Sequence to fold (644 residues):
Amino acid sequence: MASILKLDGIAKTYVKGQNQVRALAGIDLDIEAGEFLAVVGPSGSGKTTLLNIVGCLDSPSAGVVLYNGTPLGSMKEDQLSEYRKKHISFIFQSYNLIPVLTVRENVELPLVIERRMNKNEIRAKADELLKAVGLEGLGDRYPRELSGGQEQRVAIARALVKEPYIVLADEPTANLDSHTAEEIVDIMRDINKSKGATFIFSTHDALVQKHARRVVTIRDGLVHSDERK
Amino acid sequence: MGTLFKIAWRNVWRHGKRTALTIITMAFGLGLYIGMDSVLKGMDRTGLDNIINLTDSSVRVSTAAYEEERGSFPLDQPLPDPAGLADFIRSRPRVLATAERTRFVGQLSNGIDALYVLAVALDPEDDARVLDLPQYVEGSWLAGGGNEIVLGAKLAADLGLGLGDWVTLAARTRWEAQNADDFRVVGLIDATEPSISGSGVFVSFEDADTLLELDGLRTELIVRMERRDTLAAAMEDSDALAAAVESRFPEMAAMSFGDVGRQFLELAKAKSKSITMIIFVMMLIAGVGIANTVLMSVYARIREVGVLRAFGLHPKDITRLFLIEGGIIGVVGAAAGLLVGLGIDLFFIRVGMPLEAMMGGIDMGLPVGGTLYGEWNPDQFAVAAVVGIVVALISSWSPAKKASRLEVTNALRFV
Ligand SMILES: Nc1ncnc2c1ncn2[C@@H]1O[C@H](COP(=O)(O)OP(=O)(O)O)[C@@H](O)[C@H]1O
Ligand SMILES: [Mg+2]
Fold:
């Protein structure tokens, strides 16, 4: 299978005043379409940095990311926004739902930003996703009325609604109890199977890690091990 | 985009108190601007009407020498041929009537206190055709002769005089002899021109001829012209007549309403400038309030900005989002301001402000007396609306730009 993402010598050094922090020291990675991949490693090992670079939220100090053969580094702000709008979705550790929007409006947001579908299509799609994450009927609630697990399900629905090719999830279960965490990973895995979206998520939770099809361990900014199951 | 507006709208009302305070500041500032403008316009109109209808008429003619010494109201500079002058003026276009007057300095006494006054001797019938004084008289206007006197209401009150009381008016005659006579107060006059109520003293020529040995001496001619709809046209008419008089009678000085009116408007303009300054300061405060509100909004939602960017919103859309927030405050604030302005306008136009009662007789140097009325000023409503919205957009520009320049990764990490 052709790789959807190819990371070639990705390095990132943060400069803060006099100090330089080497977050990534040269990562090579081939990721195929439809993978369900966990990036694991201790805190500070560079997981977030790696995901941000793949999501084009941050740019590497060295190396290239090829997306379907196209180098992401050469893109301008307009193209970057387009790339994030159409191809990539994010799930965050702290959910990051928009508090003034209802659950349904939150899920609709990526489609509204994308401007591809009409109002009815968008609404139908959002309800379909809410059902898929088990939140049918909660569309009119506001995020503050939900539990953490429910909020993260909304975030998953929001990430999946536009049917992205790649879903990036930075420690999606870190704020949840282990039971809820497993549920969330199960939902992600189901959608990964049914929709074929490529999932890349970081975690330092062994329980979550065991659901992954491929586990990439990074340590000190380098790939320490890369196991497929 | 509808969703951007939705997010902006709901966030604006999420911090209700802060937003309300900003909106109130803006509404107050804009409303005050509209209201003050209405009052100033009303004051201008009343002031200008006073000049034409109560004090100076459309054109006031005296000799050039008299005009030079006007402050002392001399009796040695008579009009050489008042009748010929009046005939000429009445032959000019748009002239309705003329009246002769002689002003003099006198001393008014109630037997205990005496006050120096600037008195006017006039022909009661002719004068009523040129000026509107009789309309403002309580009691009756002069009948001509019979030692009657009409006094400004406030002047009379200062001297403790009422209708039917007797006063002594002393003055130097035309030949510099001291003379005095007793007059019965038949009318008290309280017009919208403060100087009339405060110091007006009117007697008829019949009585003044005896008191001042006038022997037909007239120092001034005043003229009523047709009422014109616009101020500019009225000024033009007066200017034209004054010019005609001066070219026909070179030794005469004709004061046009145009000259007086323009002076008056200059003064009024200075006043409206200070109002504009006040409004400017209030808008500055409102602007700072909006800038602050939007900036707080940006700081409170840094992570949200990161999320929106991660989902593909362009930095321009982020700018737009916060501009919309400022704009909402501006539009609501401006709308509230128009309502406040409408309220103030309605009050001043329908009810008016009774100046005397409010100031307790203190002289504020206002050009009008009695009840002060406002004028409709629809153009100022438009100005206020535009100013409010523009101020809001300008003030939210910098925080909105700040939000759009946030680094996505930093924004997402922000707690
Ligand atoms: N914006 C930044 N500025 C400076 N140092 C940073 C920044 N972001 C991350 N780092 C540093 O880079 C290293 C890797 O961070 P991160 O990618 O967040 O690791 P992880 O997600 O695995 O905990 C850490 O040492 C962290 O302190
Ligand atoms: Mg991390």
